[in-house]
Amino acid sequence: MQEALQLAQVAADCKEVPVGAVVVDSSGAIIGRGSNLREKNADPLAHAEVLAIRQAAEARKSWNLSDCTLVVTLEPCPMCAGAILQTHISRVVFGAWDSKLGACGSVWDILRDPHIGSHPQVFGSVCESQCAQILSDFFARTNSRTNSRINSRTK
C-alpha cells in the first residue's frame, strides 16, 4: 500500500485526483503501477487501476492476472471492477471507501455479485486513514482554490 500511496501523491502533485495502484504477482513483485492520469492524458479511462493492470498485463504478456493482487488507495469504481473481473485478478486490497462510486462493497458489490463467475477476495480499509487523508487534503485544496476564484469574482 505504501507504493500505491506514493503513486497517489504523484497524481496529486500533477493536480489529478490522488489515487495510486499497484499490481503484485504471486512472488510479491510489483509488475504494474498506475496513478490517475485522466486530466493529463484527456482520457476518461486513465484510472490508476486500469493503468496498473495494463502495465501488469504487458509485463506478463497475458491478460490473465489470476495469481495477482491489485492494491489501490481508493475503492475501485464500476469500470475498474469490470477490468478486475476481466483480468481474473485474485485479490483486491484497497484503502479508502468511495461513498459515491465504490463498487467493492460500499455503493455496489460488483466483485462479489453471485451472477459473475470469478470472485476475487476483497480487503478494504487497509491504511484507510492515510488513503482518505490524501484525498481529503486534495479536495480541500481544490475546493479552496475554486472558492477563492468564485469569491474574487463576486467582490
Structure description:
The chain has helices at 2-13, 38-41, 48-60, 78-87, 128-154, and strands at 20-24, 30-35, 69-74, 91-96, 121-123. By secondary structure, the chain is an alpha/beta fold. Strands 2-1-3-4-5 form a 5-stranded mixed beta sheet. It is globular, with a radius of gyration of 16 Å.
Describe this protein with a few key phrases.
155 residues; alpha/beta; 5-stranded mixed β-sheet; 5 strands; 43% helix; globular
Biggest β-sheet description: 5 strands, mixed
Low-confidence stretches: 146-155
Strand order of the largest sheet: 2-1-3-4-5
How many helical elements? 5
Average pLDDT figure: 92
Classify the secondary structure makeup into a structural class: alpha/beta
Strand content: 15-25%
User: Helix coverage percent of residues?
Assistant: 40-55%
Shape: globular
Tell me the distance between the termini: 45 Å
Radius of gyration (CA) equals: 16 Å
Q: How many E-type strands?
A: 5
Return the string of H and E elements: HEEHHEHEEH
Write the layout of secondary structure elements.
Elements (H helix, E strand, L loop, with lengths): L1 H12 L6 E5 L5 E6 L2 H4 L6 H13 L8 E6 L3 H10 L3 E6 L24 E3 L4 H27 L1
Parallel strand pairs: 3-4, 4-5
Antiparallel strand pairs: 1-2, 1-3
Helix pairs in contact: 1-5
Quick synopsis:
This protein is α/β, with parallel strands linked by helices. It has helices at 2-13, 38-41, 48-60, 78-87, 128-154, and strands at 20-24, 30-35, 69-74, 91-96, 121-123.
